[in-house]
Specification:
- The complex is a heterodimer of chains A (about 80) and B (about 140).
- Chain A is about 55% helix and about 0% strand.
- Chain A has about 80 residues and is mostly helical.
- Chain B has one domain: Tetratricopeptide repeat domain (Serine Threonine Protein Phosphatase 5, Tetratricopeptide repeat).
- Helices cover about 80% and strands about 0% of the residues of chain B.
- Chain B is built from 7 helices and no strands.
- In chain B, helix 1 (about 10-25) runs antiparallel to helix 2 and helix 3 (about 45-60) packs parallel to helix 5 (about 80-95).
- The longest helix of chain B has 18 residues, at about 115-135.
- Chain B is globular, with a radius of gyration of 15 Å.
- The termini of chain B are far apart.
- Classes of the chains: A mainly alpha (about 80), B mainly alpha (about 140).
- The interface between A and B is large, with 33 and 50 residues.
Chain lengths: ~80, ~140
């Protein structure tokens, strides 16, 4: 079937975009930061109450907390 | 280096980004997106985090969001060829051929100055898609 030239690309043609993601850092280095990342998680959880009235700060805290939980779960 | 608002070191930021990139490679897009979202808050000028977000948004077919994320990366790093690839690709997805064409021109100029086989392959792919749109 002929595709319309205006239709979005199929997944095969999107995947080469991965090669454009820059190679930076080394995820295994996170092991040495495990304790400090855990301390940061405790810190942002404590900040949540103080930030209850500040929506932009709360957004940052939520995003950082979600990231730290995911990373610490990966480090287990 | 990007502006960091939360006291993370550059090594921590880069390591977190590498985990997000590895997650993309492994197809763990939820994990990648969560890390990239966190990075975009703690280091708002760190363009690669927005590229991870754009990549995940392309896969979930949220092309407008992917285009916006690419533009945020462009705002942080307008001369970075990685960013330009994402801007061109996502502009094609939202049918903004004019912007895609302009950015593809910039990529072509950068590739003339520095040899990059993977970059040239992706450039040809995007250029072919652009030319198809213009027919």
């Amino acid at each position: 079937m002929k595709r319309s030239p205006l239709s979005p690309p199929d997944e095969f043609s999107i995947s080469p975009l991965f090669t454009a993601l820059p190679k930076l850092g080394d995820a295994t280095a996170l092991y040495k930061f495990k304790n400090s990342l855990f301390a940061r998680l405790e810190g942002v959880t404590e900040q949540r109450e103080a930030a209850a009235q500040d929506r932009s700060l709360l957004k940052r805290i939520n995003a950082e907390e979600a990231m730290l939980k995911v990373v610490l779960s990966w480090l287990k | 280096m990007a502006q960091i608002v939360s006291g993370y070191s550059e090594e921590e930021i880069f390591s977190l980004y590498d985990l997000a990139r590895l997650s993309v490679e492994a197809g763990e897009l939820k994990r990648a997106e969560s890390i990239a979202n966190g990075l975009s808050e703690i280091a708002p000028d760190f363009a690669p985090a927005f590229l991870i977000m754009a990549y995940c948004q392309v896969w979930s077919k949220d092309y407008e969001a992917a285009s916006d994320s690419s533009e945020r990366a462009f705002k942080a790093s307008p001369n970075d060829i990685s960013v330009l690839f994402f801007v061109a690709a996502t502009k094609l997805l939202v049918n903004d051929s004019q912007r895609a064409g302009t950015v593809l021109g910039e990529i072509g100029e950068l590739l003339e100055k520095k040899r990059d086989l993977e970059g040239e392959r992706l450039y040809k792919l995007l250029l072919a898609r652009f030319q198809m749109r213009m027919r």
